[in-house]
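---------- Forwarded message ----------

FYI, see the DUF1840 family protein record below. Original note from H. follows.
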Amino acid sequence: MLVRLTSSTSGEVVMLAEHLRGLLEVLDKDCTARGIFTLEQLPPTIAKLKTLVEADRQAAHLYEQAKIQAENQAGKMAGEAAENEVEEDAEDDETADETPIWLGQRAVPLLHLMERTLREKGFILWQADRDF
């Protein structure tokens, strides 16, 4: 299900309900069919989202480092022949090596909408077909 977040001053963002749910939970908002971020709520909400984005960036960096380290260890332990076989398998199944999309990455469009709305002294409404 899609949720439309509309700024009174700066456009809109459309997100999947399952992704927005995680953000709204962090922001202590109910996942109702309709909701609002008032002008007064925007500064602390923006601060929370910025903290989330930064924490997720750090977590993503650590994840990538751990992934590279694990791959290097596997290559050393398995030897050259096994390493070639792993590379061929990885080419066949590229989806297995996709980097996950973190919640902080999903927050960035909403964060930008909130910052623009705050500068223009507006508010943001969200609307979905039903509670999510």
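H. also flagged this: Residues 2-127 form one domain.
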